[in-house]
From TrEMBL:
Keyword entries, A-Z: Acyltransferase, Transferase
Molecular function GO labels: acyltransferase activity
CDD domains assigned to the protein according to its UniProt record, in alphabetical order: LPLAT_LCLAT1-like (cd07990)
Keyword Transmembrane helix tagged: no
Annotated protein name in UniProt: Acyltransferase
Domain called Phospholipid/glycerol acyltransferase: residue spans: 84-226
Source organism superkingdom: Bacteria
Organism: Pseudomonas spelaei
Pfam families according to UniProt: Acyltransferase (PF01553)
Keyword Ion transport belongs to the record: no
Length: 299
């Protein structure tokens, strides 16, 4: 009963926080439609400030109403005036609050690359647009085979969508696994990693090609939910808001970006593609070992 009451109360507070700040966010979002040049940038900054304030209030709600200990390690020299690429493992919807806890107002408000079609999702599409989330258009290999004249257009469109980031710092989040981890998915993939799914190098290669020169560093983030057992259930969002997640470890390691990772054609150059894939696989091998070490420490 206590978990049920806690979950309902936290849900109510999170909903109220969202409803109160959604209106002002939309006001400045609509100003972006009519504001010229520099004033559009001011409106964008106002939207970001509102989003960060929303996130800070959410953090306060979790601190006051739930017993979760957020064990944040690393990232001591993070800044809000530069751009980052975040690469993280992905297990649960709790990963998003974990990013908020560890990065909000320590780095620029984070953004995800979204499919262009998602802009038409009611309310959310407008909110994502207001937050300057890049909407990208990807063509399949089959489509490009029929329309070779469109090769490279998806990258061009994405670079244009990221034009604002040349004037404002940004934190771009990329989940290389493409989906949330589960033991069933790991076995289905025959993943060589113990605690991770196979990484998809194409997504990060696309981000680096579009934004490589604007990014100053990679934040290699590892999220771990310590447990006493080997086959524990990964906590979900309800577990978090009802007070059933005792501890979350967020390990942040800052890595320098090698320009060689975006100075090539991932789709058409096999040698360059292999270089990026080797880099991603090495990153994932190290992350898998780090997860095991952090889990052992937690136990």
């Amino acid at each position: 009963m206590r978990r049920l009451l806690t979950g309902c109360f936290v849900t109510l507070l999170l909903l109220l926080n969202t409803l109160v700040l959604f209106g002002p966010l939309m006001v400045f979002a609509l100003l972006k439609l009519v504001a010229p040049g520099r004033f559009r940038d001011y409106a964008s900054k106002a939207v970001m400030w509102i989003a960060e304030t929303w996130a800070e209030i959410d953090k306060l709600i979790f601190t006051l109403c739930t017993p979760t200990q957020w064990d944040i390690r690393g990232g001591d020299n993070l800044r809000g005036d530069t751009s980052y690429l975040v690469i993280s493992n992905h297990q649960s919807w709790v990963d998003i609050p974990a990013l908020i806890q560890s990065l909000n107002r320590r780095t620029p408000f984070f953004k995800f690359f979204l499919k262009k079609e998602l802009i038409w999702v009611p309310f959310l599409g407008l909110a994502w647009w207001a937050l300057d989330y890049p909407f990208m258009k990807r063509y399949s290999k089959a489509f490009l085979a029929k329309h070779p004249e469109l090769a490279g257009q998806d990258l061009k469109i994405t670079k244009e969508a990221c034009e604002l980031f040349k004037r404002q710092p940004v934190t771009v989040v990329n989940y290389l696994e493409g989906t949330r981890f589960s033991e069933a998915k790991r076995q289905q993939q025959a993943s060589p990693f113990k605690r991770l799914l196979k990484p998809k190098a194409g997504g990060v290669a696309f981000v680096l090609a579009a934004m490589g020169e604007q990014l100053d560093a990679i934040l290699d983030v590892t999220v771990v939910y310590p447990s006493q057992t080997q086959q524990e259930k990964i906590p979900g969002f309800w577990d978090l808001i009802s007070g059933a997640v005792p501890k979350v470890i967020i390990d942040i390691r800052t890595r320098e970006l090698d320009p060689a990772l975006w100075q090539g054609d991932y789709e058409n150059d096999p040698a360059f593609r292999q270089t990026v894939q080797n880099w991603v696989n090495q990153l994932w091998m190290e992350k898998d070992a780090r997860i095991e070490a952090l889990r052992a420490e937690g136990r």
